[in-house]
Amino acid sequence: MIDIQSSNNIVSYGSGLTLVILFASLAIFGWLVVKYRNIRDFQFQIFVFIIIYIIGEVLEDYKIPSLSASLPYLGSQIHIIAAAFLALVLWLRLYHVRSSGRKTVDKLESVTEGDVGDADDQ
């Protein structure tokens, strides 16, 4: 028989671990944003995505009584907004690359012996 109390502790530990990982990734991408200082970079866009996702995670895990009564699924809805934002960012970046005529890496090709075009002869 499964002990409900111990499985509940595992779930609460998992949500706490999720927040720790999210804040660690927020710190990494925040450092990259400060270092490069360009809002058009992918790092800034991922930074915004992580902030939106953390807000949804906090609202979902730590239910605020005034918000929980009126908007019970607000955290989940913010997660959906974060996923839509990420999809939009990725689609716009792909569209920009394709419209500018640059190539994207669609497949990996193995390099065979004698098929190295720009390799330096040593």
Which runs of at least 5 residues are low in confidence (pLDDT < 50)? none
The shape, in one word, is: elongated
Task: Let me know the largest β-sheet.
Answer: none
| DSSP, total strands | 0
- Mean pLDDT, all residues: 79
Computed CA radius of gyration, to the nearest angstrom: 22 Å
Q: Could you say which structural class the secondary elements and strand pairing correspond to?
A: mainly alpha
Query: What is the end-to-end distance?
Result: 67 Å
Query: Count of helical segments?
Result: 4
Percentage of residues in helical conformation = 55-70%
Q: Report the sheet-strand fraction.
A: under 5%
Instruction: Compute the number of structural domains.
Output: 1
List the helices and strands in order.
Answer: HHHH
Write the layout of secondary structure elements.
Blueprint: H1 4-36, H2 42-61, H3 65-70, H4 74-99
Helix pairs in contact: 1-2, 2-4
Describe the structure in your own words.
The chain is mostly helical and 122 residues long. The protein has one domain. The chain contains four helices and no strands. α1 (4-36) packs antiparallel against α2 and α2 runs antiparallel to α4 (74-99). The longest helix is centred in the N-terminal third of the chain and has 33 residues, at 4-36.
Question: Main traits of this protein?
Answer:
122 residues; elongated
Brief characterization of the structure:
By secondary structure, the protein is mostly helical. It is 70% helix and 0% strand.
